[in-house]
Amino acid sequence: MSNDRPFNILLVEDDPADAFLARTAIRESKLVCDVHHMNDGDKALAFLRKQGSHVDSPRPDLVLLDLNMPGRDGRSVLAEMKKDSGLCDIPVVVLTTSDATSDIKTCYASGANSFVTKPVDLDGFLRAMRSIEDYWFQVVKLPH
Amino acid sequence: MESHFNILLVEDEAADACLVRLALRDAETHSELHHVSDGAEALAFVQRREERYATVPRPRLILLDLNMPRMNGREFLRHFRGDTSFNDIPVVVFSTSEYERDKESCFALGANDFVTKPVDIDEFIAAVKGIETRWMQASQIQD
User: In whole angstroms, what is the distance from residue A13 CA to residue A5 CA?
Assistant: First the structure.
């Protein structure tokens, strides 16, 4: 991985304490990251599409996505991303308090790359970060 | 090892500080409250810069008022978030302000949450308890 730019992570999370935990987990990973935090789904999509005040936003290397948020929820953000040819290849890790099998199935079916239960599972977070790190190492070996 | 959940309250209004203390005592969660009355004192506390702060614990949560003499909450945030060694300490702004632009500016300065102080005393106490419970949970997961 080239170290000349940070790894950009878009964190989509409405709960401030969970957002804090996610940032803590990210800091403990070895990646040099810029975390961009949006607290609802509409803002996340605006960030991804560089709309409004987000014209200069970087394309994230990874999206950490909460499922349950007021307004546009994580399921809807995931569905929008996966049908957008410009966004569908960005890896998405779904963060949720839900252990519901139906949620897990739906998210994988919608193209989520990984599923982490929060907030009881900070280790899971770190594992997800590491797997993404591995993924990233492999991806950047590909010729552009 | 059981460690106290140390909360640093940065608040110049004696009445508000008293209510926060009451709320936390009432909650019986055994948080330990430390109170300073402006941003400059809060910085001295977290940096253990002065002799009277030489042995104070590292707070697990900072509850921050915005409008204070000497150094206000925004200036405190700017200094505090400028030091990455404090990244693991969440800051919840607890202010009378209801303005969206105040919220946004605090988040931009690195606050982790913004809670408007309720005018009603019972709601005020419930708000403090809610903040304590939520962040105590997050802190336990970090350990």
Answer: 24
Whether B90 and A122 lie within 8 Å, measured CB to CB: no
**Chain A contact present for B116, CB below 8 A:** no
State the nearest Cα–Cα gap between B132 and chain A, in angstroms.
11
Query: What is the residue whose two structure tokens read 């302000």?
Result: B97
Q: How far is CA B114 from CA A15, B90, B123, in A?
A: 11, 11, 16
Q: Which residue, among B81, B86, B87, B141, would best test binding to A if mutated, counting the most A CBs under 10 Å from its CB?
A: B141
Q: What is the pLDDT of residues A85-135, one digit of tens each?
A: 999 989 888 887 766 777 777 777 887 877 777 766 667 777 776 666 666
DSSP collapsed to 3 states, chain B: CCCCEEEEEECCCHHHHHHHHHHHHHHCCCEEEEEECCHHHHHHHHHCCCHHHCCCCCCCEEEECCCCCCCCHHHHHHHHHCCHHHCCCCEEEEECCCCHHHHHHHHHCCCCEEEECCCCHHHHHHHHHHHHHHHHHHHHHHC
Whether the CB-CB separation of A7 and A60 falls below 8 Å is answered with no
